């Protein structure tokens, strides 16, 4: 009886067009022009109406070339933020103001979501009003305890 | 897990367990992405849930193997799946709860009364009706009665696993306990079937999360399974599809073709007729799924899959007889038997024909041919 | 029981029984018939009759040179689609598995994409054959229900098979069930119509050849 370690392994690259996961390897077909057009119109909407939007990158069939083209066009901006909440999430503003590239990872480091958010500030980054109020209460308690000590 | 709601919202409960608003928002974003929902729904779901009182869930287990609950709790990234248990108020689950006996039953009764019309009833396992329901009874009450009573106050019923959805293994031939799926016994409540043996954890939690945050039953297929997870067959999204299209099939386990990752159609893979998310979401946090590990799909999310013939017979083979099993010998015997009858009939026909021919020739001889 | 389980299960079982029973009936019924008594003296030995029969099977499988201009097109059409049918029935992976599950052994097949091409070509030839039958005045006069129905039943199997492999027009399990049901229909119809030529062809040429050899002629 052969042991698991004794079974030879051969890795064969699947032929072109193989499906792996929800994205066929055919890419966006036509480059990222359509995606960029959508981003541009969402930016206009944000500027005029203050309405944010988001695009789920995992739902789009992007080939590696599409991805590098997108990264090249959007570029890197001045802001990079890290959120440590059950895993690391990285948020970068791209060179295009208002376009944020967000990667969410879980505690194991696996990518669980990747999206482009078109906003003044990504929703997850901003502090929430109820939490701010709770923080004020906590500080006041700390101060009053400190005063009594 | 609390029997009474503490009056806490989901957000407050999560905070108590050290799960921040941002963690929860991230989790909901991931779930929305996995369910192919619009990306704004992730934060929307998170906000909606955080502000709501914790939804009450009563989890009833009947004639089941507990595999579905194991799948739900045995997740690869415990914090992500654990979140669901901190989001909801799991008011009754006989495997997970610490209480037992009368205390547990009265906790359930109270939860059902306090949340009448609003709690979600999660069921796993089939419901036996044989012997007056005695095949599955807890606390002196049969599963049938418990189900019917719990269904009265439920906002919706989520059937987790193929047993609750379609009857499963107990329902398979000869069904000695007269087991039935939940939908055969309850017809006046919205039912969502999350089938699979067991179902994928993310499919279970995603469905529950979406229901809690929207309050609406998702789009269902004709078997009442959420289309977002059960809309495609395994075959539609299988990474070995190019090999199927080229006709490169593995002939036996661990042969040259199998080691090269060829299609498992000839080894009985039921991928083409099975609807589930195994080929995309996969198992154990996306590590693998049966076909990727070299074994054909057994069709475990389909009704009656136990009785559809051997797991190792291809879809293009005959499948009659007990549980769809037919051996080559039996087919040849049947053919030979039929042919034997045909031979007798043929001899008979020829005999009749020759007799008539003889009579005709005898008659002609008399007249001079 | 869903449609696919029915088509592979009871329907297939009944169809196989009818097929085997019917084919055996017709073959034996035909084989045991007595030829009209021939009062001529045989001109050759029995050995010559047998070889004559075998030779005729070969010689009648190809048109005589004088007839080729008139019958060549029809013969070519017929041969082509028959060869196509044999290839796609016997050399397609899932079909080989089907036969293997009955016979207990299998054989190597052809790439599925090649089979698809051959199937489409065969279907095209099959349509051409129907067109010819309907437009040729003599053929049209000679054709009856048996001809058209046998054609239809075979065409249906091909069309449903192509639809199933292409996953075209309905969920796969429905397409596969319809394809298998069409095969069941073919099996049930087979013993009762002109499809029996599959079994009668060689014997009838051999017997004709033997009879002619008995008379001392060459066929």
The CA-CA distance between the termini of chain B, in Å, is 105 Å
In the CATH scheme, what's the topology name of the largest domain in chain B?
Rossmann fold
How many domains is the backbone of chain A divided into?
1
Rough outline of chain B: elongated
Count of DSSP strands of chain A: 7
Uncertain runs of chain A: 15-26
CATH top level label of chain A: Alpha Beta
- Count of alpha and pi helical runs of chain A: 3
Order of helices and strands of chain A: EEHEHEEEEH
CATH class of the largest domain in chain B: Alpha Beta
Summarize the biggest pleated sheet of chain B: 5 strands, parallel
Main β sheet profile of chain A: 5 strands, antiparallel
Arithmetic mean pLDDT of chain A:
81
Say which CATH homologous superfamily of the largest domain in chain B is assigned: NADH:ubiquinone oxidoreductase-like, 20kDa subunit
Q: Give the chain pair forming the largest contact, with residue counts.
A: B-C, 51 and 50 residues
CATH topology of chain A: Ribosomal Protein S8, Chain: A, domain 1
What's the CATH architecture of the largest domain in chain B? Answer: 3-Layer(aba) Sandwich
Give me the Rg of chain A, rounded.
22 Å
What would you say this structure looks like, in words?
The complex is a heterotrimer of chains A (149), B (369) and C (219). Chain A has helices at residues 33-49, 64-74, 129-148, and strands at residues 19-20, 23-24, 53-56, 80-84, 88-93, 99-105, 111-118. Chain A has 149 residues and is of the alpha+beta class. Chain A has a single domain, classed as HupH hydrogenase expression protein, C-terminal domain (Ribosomal Protein S8, Chain: A, domain 1, 2-Layer Sandwich). A 5-stranded antiparallel β-sheet of chain A has the order 3-7-6-5-4. A two-stranded antiparallel ribbon of chain A has the order 1-2. The longest helix of chain A has 20 residues, at 129-148. Chain B folds into 3 domains: 10-230, Rossmann fold, CATH 3.40.50; 233-326, Cytochrome-c3 Hydrogenase, Chain A, domain 2 (Irregular), CATH 4.10.480.10; 336-364. In chain B, 42% of the residues lie in helices and 10% in strands. Chain B contains 15 helices and 9 strands. In chain B, strands 2-1-3-7-9 form a 5-stranded parallel β-sheet, with helices on both faces. A two-stranded antiparallel ribbon of chain B has the order 4-8. Chain B is elongated and about 110 Å long. Chain C is mainly alpha-helical and 219 residues long. Chain C has one domain: Up-down Bundle (Fumarate Reductase Cytochrome B subunit), CATH 1.20.950. Chain C is 75% helix and 0% strand. Chain C has helices spanning 3-8, 10-31, 46-59, 68-90, 93-103, 112-135, 137-142, 145-166, 172-189, 197-214. Chains B and C meet through helix 13 and helix 15 of B and helix 1, helix 2, helix 5, helix 6 and helix 9 of C.
């Amino acid at each position: 009886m052969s042991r698991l370690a004794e079974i030879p392994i051969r890795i064969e690259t699947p032929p072109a067009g193989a499906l792996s996961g929800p994205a066929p390897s055919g890419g966006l077909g036509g480059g990222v022009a359509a995606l960029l057009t959508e981003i541009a119109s969402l930016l206009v909407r944000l500027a005029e109406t203050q309405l944010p939007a988001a695009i789920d990158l995992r739902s789009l069939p992007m080939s590696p070339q599409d991805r590098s083209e997108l990264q090249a066009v959007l570029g890197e901006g001045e802001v990079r933020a890290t959120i440590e909440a059950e895993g690391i999430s990285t948020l970068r503003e791209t060179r295009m103001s208002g376009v944020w590239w967000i990667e969410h990872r879980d505690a194991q480091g696996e990518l669980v979501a990747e999206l482009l958010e078109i906003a003044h500030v990504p929703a997850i980054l901003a502090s929430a009003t109820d939490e701010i109020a709770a923080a004020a209460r906590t500080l006041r308690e700390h101060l009053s305890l400190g005063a009594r000590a | 897990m609390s029997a009474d709601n503490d009056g806490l919202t989901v957000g407050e409960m999560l905070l108590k367990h050290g799960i921040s608003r941002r963690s929860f928002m991230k989790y909901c974003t991931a779930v929305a992405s996995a369910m192919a929902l619009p990306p704004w729904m992730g934060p929307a779901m998170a906000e909606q849930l955080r502000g709501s009182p914790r939804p009450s869930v009563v989890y009833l287990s009947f004639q089941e193997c507990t595999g579905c609950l194991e799948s739900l709790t045995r997740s690869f990234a415990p914090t992500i799946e654990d979140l669901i248990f901190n989001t909801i108020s799991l008011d009754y689950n006989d495997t997970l709860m610490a209480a037992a006996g009368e205390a547990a039953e009265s906790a359930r009764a109270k939860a059902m009364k306090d949340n009448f019309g609003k709690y979600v009833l999660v069921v796993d396992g089939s419901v036996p009706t044989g012997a007056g329901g005695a095949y599955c009874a807890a606390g002196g009450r049969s599963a049938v009665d418990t189900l019917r009573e719990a269904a009265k106050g439920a906002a919706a019923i989520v059937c987790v696993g193929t047993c609750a959805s379609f009857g499963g293994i107990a329902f398979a031939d000869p069904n000695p306990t007269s087991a039935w799926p939940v939908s055969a016994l309850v017809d006046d409540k919205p039912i969502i079937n999350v089938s699979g043996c067991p179902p994928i954890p993310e499919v279970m939690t995603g469905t529950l999360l979406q229901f809690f945050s929207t309050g609406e039953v998702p789009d269902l297929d004709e078997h009442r399974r959420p289309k977002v997870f059960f809309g495609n067959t395994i075959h539609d999204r299988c990474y070995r599809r190019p090999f199927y299209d080229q006709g490169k099939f593995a002939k036996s386990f661990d042969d040259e073709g199998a080691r090269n990752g060829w299609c498992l159609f000839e080894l009985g893979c039921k991928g083409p007729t099975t609807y589930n998310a195994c080929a995309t979401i996969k198992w154990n946090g996306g590590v693998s799924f049966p076909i990727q590990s070299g074994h054909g799909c057994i069709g475990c999310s389909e009704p009656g899959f136990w009785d559809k013939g051997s797991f190792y017979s291809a879809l293009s083979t005959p499948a009659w007889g007990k549980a769809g099993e037919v051996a080559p010998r039996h087919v040849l015997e049947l053919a030979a038997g039929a042919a034997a009858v045909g031979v007798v009939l043929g001899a008979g026909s020829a005999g009749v024909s020759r007799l008539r021919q003889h009579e005709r020739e005898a008659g002609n001889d008399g007249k001079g041919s | 029981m869903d449609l696919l389980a029915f088509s592979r299960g009871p329907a297939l079982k009944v169809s196989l029984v009818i097929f085997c029973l019917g084919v055996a009936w017709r073959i034996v019924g035909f084989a045991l018939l007595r030829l009209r008594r021939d009062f001529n003296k045989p001109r050759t030995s029995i050995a010559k009759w047998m070889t004559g029969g075998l030779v005729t099977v070969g010689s009648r499988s190809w048109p005589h040179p004088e007839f080729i201009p008139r019958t060549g097109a029809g013969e070519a059409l017929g041969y082509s689609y028959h060869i196509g049918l044999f290839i796609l029935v016997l050399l397609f992976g899932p079909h080989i598995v089907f036969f293997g599950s009955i016979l207990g052994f299998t054989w190597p097949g052809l790439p599925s994409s090649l089979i698809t091409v051959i199937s489409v070509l065969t279907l095209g030839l099959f349509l051409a054959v129907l067109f010819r039958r309907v437009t040729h005045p003599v053929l049209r006069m000679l054709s009856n229900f048996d001809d058209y129905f046998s054609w239809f039943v075979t065409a249906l199997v091909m069309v449903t098979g192509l639809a199933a492999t292409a996953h075209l027009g309905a969920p796969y399990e429905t397409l596969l069930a319809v394809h298998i049901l069409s095969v069941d229909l073919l099996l049930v119809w087979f013993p009762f119509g002109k499809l029996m030529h599959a079994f009668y062809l060689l014997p009838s040429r051999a017997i004709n050849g033997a009879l002619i050899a008995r008379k001392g002629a060459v066929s």
